[in-house]
Amino acid sequence: MAGIYAAMRETFAVPENDLFTVIHEHTDSAFAYDPAYLETSRDDDLVVIQITANDTRDTGQKRALYGGDRPQPRGRSEGAAGEPVHQPRGSCT
């Protein structure tokens, strides 16, 4: 969470201490996903991050936060165990 908060502070100019986070874990029976949707491999360590931002953020800020300003790998990313890896698809607008 600290990495996401730091990225939001840097790219979205989020003020210090403007942090509101909710973490919710689901049981296996309450969490369904496709392990190969959009040709991206995922497993039971899947982490979903949802960011709610108002419409004052421009496309450049969104691309900077989501990594859309650089090429993204396809397929499974080799991050550290449990590290969420964002692979944007489509438009950042």
UniProtKB/TrEMBL annotation:
The lineage of its organism: Bacteria, Pseudomonadati, Pseudomonadota, Alphaproteobacteria, Hyphomicrobiales. PANTHER family: TAUTOMERASE YOLI-RELATED (PTHR38460:SF1). It comes from Methylobacterium marchantiae. It comes from the Bacteria. Signal peptide: none annotated. Residues 58-93 are annotated as: Disordered. This is Tautomerase family protein. InterPro entries: Tauto_MSAD, Tautomerase/MIF_sf.
